[in-house]
Write a structure and sequence with these properties.
42% of the residues lie in helices and 10% in strands. It has 184 residues and is of the alpha/beta class. The chain folds into two domains: 14-76, no CATH class; 78-170, Oxidized Rhodanese, domain 1, CATH 3.40.250.10. Strands 1-5-4-2-3 form a five-stranded parallel β-sheet. Helix 8 links the parallel strand 4 and strand 5 (156-160).
Amino acid sequence: MTIVAKVPDTDLTMGELLRLYPGARRTLFQLHHIGGCSSCGFSDSETLAQVCSRNGGLDPARVLEEISEGHLKDEQLLIQPLDLKFRIGEAGIRLLDIRTREEFEAVSIPGSLFMNQETVQASMNWPKETELILIDHMGNRVLDASAYFAGHGFTAVRGLKGGIDAYAELADPTLPRYSVETES
């Protein structure tokens, strides 16, 4: 059996592009003010070429390169589940869980802190070189949260690649995995 990976091209839908490059929305917004609000948003069914066309005739191939470059930078900000497993307990590392309270109470990585308003306020007094590792459910939100902390001067912020779901699958199978149901 041969598995063929879909090569990113400008005819990908935005939904497909965001699955391949979770930080694409952030890159598009930072560089072109696309996708950050309702007036500059896009639908998952639009292609990158269509979005570029209606946003000043941007070159979709160049925009795809920018998204790819942003993705490579994002990858450097992530820690693999097994790497985290072997680092838990090291001095100077803080695990911050950015999921909902219900998710955190259902399953969490031992030693992690639930990130609520009090935790955020307290963290602003930690040394800025404190290594922060952010945890979400599937790894989709940690880069945005990392940018928040980096913007507040933290120099060693990383996100757990694949979130607690990947951690439970690859590093600690004793942790239960779950899915989140959303209302329509």
